[in-house]
């Protein structure tokens, strides 16, 4: 591996993490000695990369730093194209359009041979076969997630009984059979999961959620014993 490629790999390794990571862990991941890792970090810092480090704690890349355009491997192209094709078939109208636009942009900047391979990719996203109707409230929920805003839901349980809940949206999980909203429910005082196909209505409840979404997400992961960065 060339040194320039190793430096990019080091940036990627830091970018994937939100918490400080020790030089020993990074060196092991990159297959270099700690001394080489220290030199590589110093080189990146000298070139303007906002890497912060402290002895005994580790290194962290400050948020907001963007890597320069990178060449994708064949596997990475496959992953991007398949993922975007899946989103284009399973989001709200805005998300579907964004996925198609992003796919067009990626295909437009690929080298000719990679573009031809992408166009003839054998990884296809089939039509959504999930029974039931589309989820018209996904766009409203996505906006609430981005704004960390409270939502008022009219929700029907499995038996069809309707309840009104004010929730703090945390995340939306996309599963084979349905989509599920993870939220803190003010009524229950705890995390709850709401199937999107059972949400009769969703509208802003006014005001921001009292707790930041990333804090809620971390608490929910802990409650479910889900590991995450």
TrEMBL record:
This is YafY family transcriptional regulator. Pfam families: HTH_11 (PF08279), WYL (PF13280). It comes from Muricoccus nepalensis. Residues 6-59 form the Helix-turn-helix type domain. Gene3D superfamilies: Winged helix-like DNA-binding domain superfamily/Winged helix DNA-binding domain (1.10.10.10). Residues 136-203 form the WYL domain.
